[in-house]
């Protein structure tokens, strides 16, 4: 994942910051408790493609 891209990407719902989870290949929005997948190096920023985070995952 390109660091320059991470600097400009925000959550499409709340416009808040995203945290890159390298192990899971996801961009995580803690405010909305959503994880957006990264497929073949491309972030999929559609809310219907995001998975909901469990309460224990939000504190990463």
Automatic annotation (TrEMBL):
Protein name: UPF0434 protein EJN92_16495
Family note: Belongs to the UPF0434 family. In the N-terminal section; belongs to the LpxK family.
Gene Ontology CC terms, in alphabetical order: cytosol
Superkingdom: Bacteria
Lineage, broadest ranks: Bacteria, Pseudomonadati, Pseudomonadota, Betaproteobacteria, Burkholderiales
